[in-house]
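Q: A reviewer asked whether we had any structural model of the full assembly, not just the individual parts. We don't, so I'm hoping you can provide one. Inputs are below.
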Amino acid sequence: MIKEKYINHLNETAITIVNSRVECIGVKNITKTGLRVYKNGYIGIASALGKYDNEKLENKAIDSLDDKIKYTCEISRDKTRIIDKRNNIIDDKEFINETELLFSELRECQPNFSFSNKIKMIEITTTLSNDSNLYLQHSDKALEVELYFKEKSSKNVIDGEIKYFGRNYDRRLLVYEINMILNAYKNNIKLENKETYPVIFLNSNNIILEKFITDLHGRNFAAGVSLFSDKQGQKMFNEEFTLYQSNNPEDVTNRTFFDAEGVVNKDYKFTLIENGVIKAPYTDKRLAEEYNLPKTGSAMSDYSEIPHTKYNSNLMLEESNKTVKELLGGNIGVLVLMSEGGDFTSDGNFSTPVQLSMLFDGEKLIGRLPQIQLSSNIFDMFGNSFRGVGKDIFPFSKDKLIVMDMKVSEL
Amino acid sequence: MYKFPNSLYSDVRIEDVFETNISFTKGKINKNSVTRYQAAFIRIFNGERWYYTSTSDVDNIQKEIDYLASKARTNEGIYNHPIVRKFEVNKGKFLRFEADDVTKVNKEEKKKLITDLFNVIEFREVIKTWGAAYIENKKIQHFFSSKGADIVFDSQRVGIGIRVALEQDGKNLSETFMKSSDKFDDLKNQKINLEKFISKCENFMKNSRSVVPGKYKVILSPFAAGVFAHESFGHKSEADFMVEDDTMKEEWAIGKKIGADILSIVDYGMGVGSGYVPFDDEGTKSKETYLIENGILKGRLHSASTAVSLDEDLTGNCRAVNFEYEPIVRMTSTYILPGDKTKEELFYEVKDGIYIDTIKHGSGMSTFTIAPSIAYLIKDGKITDPVSISTITGNVFETLSDVDGVSDELELLSLVAFHCGKNDQMGLPVGLGGPYVRVKDMNVQ
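A: Here is a predicted structure for the entire assembly that you could use as a starting point for your response.
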């Protein structure tokens, strides 16, 4: 019998902002443990929140082998790797004070806007270890900025959002980026009467990737219910379009470099679509084994679950060697800053309302558009209409910018 | 029980949680877990700021109270603070589910509930992959406050979900059959319902065509109407969006006409199902709150803080998704009240339109969006061809005013797989529902 432990330790400070002022300060210090046992081709699991009795937990996991949940895959073994990407983003003692200073500055430079929601400092250490000499540990610390802004004279509940998730903080750059957006926001402009526009999405906005998230899921792919089933090896998209799953600490923050089964990919990445060609759906070991698919190291689980393939939003696009301005090729584009509620149909048609967008020349935000509707089809969006991913990024949030042509109409 | 610090307001919320999750994929078991834990959330308020923490070490809650107290400046007059004065002081035990306690049901019986449905699915050629799950959550909450509140209450949610993915001749569809309740016995005998559901899915997949985008008269099923009410208006009723915002207070002034005369929307936590919230997470007893009454803005959903800010009464709507989070203003069960037309009359009056049966998701800002799943054309009063729609959007005010028909029976739904997300708190169980609702003009894509 092999025993394996999955331990997740979270240390978090959350500052709640209401009307541009600090209203709440919350702290969290929580450890979650999952104990897995593997025996005779089955897996058992038991979990604990906080302190626990190891023997009792082990016995509970062993008892759960009676559920006869099959696990015949090779267990990850003989590997030790520790990655610690924590740095002192803002000194813990200074975090609240710095947040107050930030909003003091924003109240002064943007008095006609109010901000709300949260800023958090999140530190996570995750360890996966077992009796077969596996010891993988990832530690990381991230600053999460999720702020809604509202023009004080606006009748909307929210007018837009500012998001960041990463390891850096520079108040000057954050204020610069917020000012860049809000100053353009104040300039209302009309949408020209054109059917299509180049549209720019932030990589952090998963909405345009939703169809890949569902239809590159290994089970859907193999069962034939995916739009991409039977298309492995075929060129279905633009040559410039490469989609990969990344656990690389240089790409992502607070995501372990290993998956929930202890798989560590080369460069912590796995390419699913390369230069328009579908290479593989994403899988965990059991799914890969069941359907004879490539193992992509995509197993996920929380502490109480057996690893399996969930809908994976850890997808990224490879950037081109062109700037957004070059990708726009002299055109003015529509930069999508907030789009809630859109979706794909089963045959790949896409539509979304856009609550906040701006005209963008590739370097400068020009002004705010009225609420619009975007529509297209996935094979166009990432096919003929796909222009590429710009190599430049927003100054603070470092979000990549994805450019494609779409139908745009006023809502 | 706890020594609360002087000159500070404190409250403690302890959750005793019992969860079962049994799931299968294509008949093979992949989860059979029973989890039980106790954990707590502690808050302190000094009149200027809230301080909070969560812990799974319920034997050391006093330590957490003392730690938070050390962070906060004291305030001698805290119990005269308007927010603290607003808090209710309720005492007692309010246990609704002792007789129908789902934790007393044998695990094998729960497993059999779904395995008995397998023969409906497994030999249908058009179903290429499927999953089945039984989910339950039983929670007993203890709430204490330094004002003297001391309440114990429970909630219980059970449900089955059967997710099917169909494919034939290059067409595909994914849908989920759900049956939820707060009592285990209500989940039994679902074979016929599941069969009907699969047949409907199969027909839709084979025969649906893309909708011609445009404006349509739309009839929403009770499920779709419930999501519409939740997304288009429910979130806007959450008063935390209005605090210190004069523009919003004017825009959403009580007494303002904002919808059709036949439209009334209520939020109430004492119904059955997912939205059963007898007390919120500040210890406030649930109140029946009319958000819209006959087209007039009637009320809002509050925490103590927002109620004070807007000088309104408490409603029992301050909730946290679990012990790790602070309570914020959330819905409980939100639904449109029935009207006076029969369902048949509602459809009969539509010459050309669309009927939305099921939906994938919805969201609401100043524009709301619904992503339909199964939908049909309506022609001369009858439901006709299945039609595939990406999204339906609308301006909230316009759409509320465009409601021109409401059927006469309310279906209040308990949906174990439908949860509400707000800010960083995802997955809050809520109830929703309504009658059939007709809207004269919606933007369909």
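A: Points you may want to mention in the reply: Chain A is about 15% helix and 40% strand. Residues 196-207+319-410 of chain A form one domain.
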